[in-house]
Amino acid sequence: MFNWLTDFFRTRRDKLRPRAPHIERVAAQNRHFLNPPLDMHSARVYEGSPWVYVAINRIAEAGALVPLKVYRLAGEKRIGVENHPLETLLSAPNPLTSRFELFEQTIGSLELQGNAYWFLAGDERGQPREIWLLRPDRVTIVPHERRIVAGYLYEINGERIPLDALEVLHFRRWHPTDDFYGLSPIAAARGAVLSDRHMADWNRNTFGQDNGVPAGIVNIKDFISDTDFERVKREWRGNYGGAARRTAFLRGGAMEWQHIGLSHSDLDFLQGRQAQRDEILNIFGIPVGLVSENATEANAKVAERQFIERTLWPKLARIAQKISQELLPFYGANLVAEYDDIRPTDAKARLEEIRTAYPLLSINELRANYFQLPPVAWGDVAVSPHPAPPSVDDNRRGVSLERPDSPTPEHSRKSAVENELAQWERFALNRLERAEQTRPFEVSALPDELAFEVSAGLLFARDRASVKSVFAGVRAGLG
Asked: Where residue 354 falls among pLDDT bands split at 50, 70, 90?
C-alpha cells in the first residue's frame, strides 16, 4: 500500500504546483447537493427568540452605521479616493434599498444563516450598477472542478434561476465541515435557544386561558352522589378554571387539597432563563453588560468596548476584505475597501503619547500620525516647549520672545502668562499670512500643559477665527 507513497515522496518538488489537487474531488463530492444545507428554521428562531433577535439586531444595526471607504494603494501608503463610484453605489444600492438596509440585511444574514449573497447588475461598461441582496435559503452553490464555483441557482416557487459566479458576491462564516456554505451561530446556540423557548412556552401556558388551575388533586373523602360530584366539578371549573389564581372554597362534604405541582422557585425559573440568555448572547459575542439591568456605568463601558473590538470589528473586516477581493476589481487595480476604525482608544494614554511625542516630531508628523490631517507649509518643525534665543526676524515683526532674566514673581506670574499668550496669538496670526514662516513660537512663561494645549489646538487652526478661538479657550481656562 505504501509503495506508491514512497515513490511519490522520494523526489522533492523544486517549485509549487500550479493548482490544488483536491479541488476537483471537493467539487465532485458536493455536486449532488440540490439545496443548500441551511437551517430552514433560522427565520422562525429569529422571530420567536427575544435574545436571538436582540443579539442579531445589535450587531447588524451597529455594523450598518460604520462608514466604508475606498483607498488606492501607493506602495505601503493608502490614499483616500474621494467620491469613488463604489461609495456612490453603496449609498443607493438599488431603487428599493438604502445603504443602511443593505449592510443591516447583509450582516443579519451572516449572523442568522452564516451566508449572505449580493447580486451585481452591471452597466454598459461592465461595472456594477445595482446591488441586490439574495435570500440565503434560496441560493444553491454549483461546484466546478477548476473554477471551484461554477455559479449559483436562485430558486423561487420551484423555478431555478441560474446566476453566473461573476454576478454574485458570497459572504460566509467559517464552517468546519462544509466546503462552500458558512455556519450560523444559531446552530451552536440551538440547545440554549430551545431551552429558553420551552421555558417561555411553559410560562405562557401556565398563565394562559384555562390553565390557571393549580397543579393538584381535589380529594373528596366522603362518598357523594353523582349529582353532587357534577356540581363540584362545575363549580370548580366555573370559578377557578380561568387565568385567575384564587383559593378554592367548595361545598359538598369533607375535601382535601393535595399539591403535586412544582412552583417557579422549585424549578429555579428566573435563574434558568437568565442562564439561557447569557449563553445565547455569549455565542453571538454580545457582552451581558450591554443588556443587563444591573450593570454599572463602568461595566457598560467595558462591555461596549469588548463588543466593538472583539465582535463587531472582525465582522466588518470580513465584509471589507471580501469587497476588496471580488467587487473592487471591477473598478481597477490597487484598490482596497476599509471601514473607519471605530475601535475605542484610551484617551488618557493617547494624550500622554502625544505629550511625549510632540517635542520630538514635527507639526506635520503630529498631524499625520495622530489626527490624520494633511501637511501644512509651516509644519516641518517640531513643537518644542524649550526656549531658544530670539532671532532678528522676530524683532522686526515686533514679537518679543526673550526669556526673563529672573524668575517671575508669584504675584505677576499670571500677567506674564497672559502677555505671552498675546504674543503667541499675534505670532500665529502672522504665520497664517506668511507661508514661508516655519519656525515655531518659543515658550518661556507658559506652563507645559498650557503650551501643549495651544500647540494641539493650532494643529487644526486654518484661519484667523479658529486661531483666535484657540487662545480664547485657553484664556477662559485661566479664570
From this structure: confident
Q: Provide the pLDDT for residue 240.
A: 64
Please list, in sequence order, all residues whose beta carbon lies within 8 angstroms of the beta carbon of residue 134, skipping any fewer than 6 positions away: 117, 118, 119, 154, 168
Q: What is the DSSP letter of 151?
A: E
Closest CA to 372 of 344, 336, 343, 341: 341
Total-model pTM: 0.63
Distance CA(407)–CA(438), nearest Å, equals: 29
Cα separation, 132 vs 94, whole angstroms: 7
DSSP 95: T
Cα 79 from Cα 331, distance rounded (Å): 16
Q: Which residue has the cell 362534604?
A: 253
> Of 57, 49, 292, 38, whose CA–CA distance to 189 is shortest?
49
Other Cβ atoms less than 10 A from the Cβ of 228: the count is: 15
Contact between residue 140 and residue 148 where contact means Cβ atoms under 8 Å apart: no
Least confident of 46-55, 91-100, 273-282: 273-282
